[in-house]
Write a structure and sequence with these properties.
26% of the residues lie in helices and 20% in strands. It is of the alpha+beta class and 270 residues long. The chain has a single domain, classed as Jelly Rolls. Strands 1-7-4-9-2 form a five-stranded antiparallel β-sheet. A four-stranded antiparallel β-sheet has the order 3-8-5-6, with no helix packed on it. The chain is globular. 40% of the residues are buried.
Amino acid sequence: MAPTASAALLDESRLTRDQLDQFSRSGYLVLPGFLPARLVERLRPEVDHWVDQGFRARSIASCVDPARHGAPPLMELELPAHGELIGHRPLLSLISQVMEGDLVFHHLHSDRQAPDVPGKPWHHDFEQGVGTDRSSLMVHALHYLDGLDPSVSSLAVLPGSHLKTAEKSALADHGTSPLPGEVVIDSLPAGSTVLLHSALFHARRPQPGGTGKPRYFVDASYCSANTMWPPVKPYWRHMLGRARELGLGDDVQWPELFADRHFTEYSHGN
């Protein structure tokens, strides 16, 4: 990992002033070994089940052609450890600190990426369009269950790029090639989390040779609960409703976590 991207927590549920300033300035925080080992051990077989039983593929199909496929038979948040991860109190505490207020869950992705998985070009994931007000915050929590090392794809980020308004694919022409000022994150222990401002440009850089180990990856997204957000899943109401039914959040501390009222209507291609 060069240059260094480490930002060790002094306390699992409190960020220091320096860490808050770093997130504001650079657009990311690296939290080595952040997730409890027992949670990681429960998540891994759920990811295997999600991928091997075809539920991930079915979920993608539901998003690509919602009229044909409808809501999937299983969602990630209905897997017990995945549901627990969404409402993991130390994680929500950190996110609420960088947002300086209440938050709402946006979506979750889970995957076991093969050693030869192609890279993902430079992009950002902020869901508000270029012409909209970007004063509200959206955050992605990238969870690496087995950590990162040279045997799997690395994460490249472009510090400070979240401070400029740009289309999601504005840097896609560069593919996964190195960019001036980038930071490459390629060495993290199991259960590590990288907290990204969703407007930060980042890329998944493939592992050379494609002969390493699978990369267990869970990506959870949250938004500040003070504006309307476009959903990315056509069955978003079903998703939030199931989360409420399952009691995944803390209704006292984060009462808006699964509230429908923070979202606009779904539009295919969001």
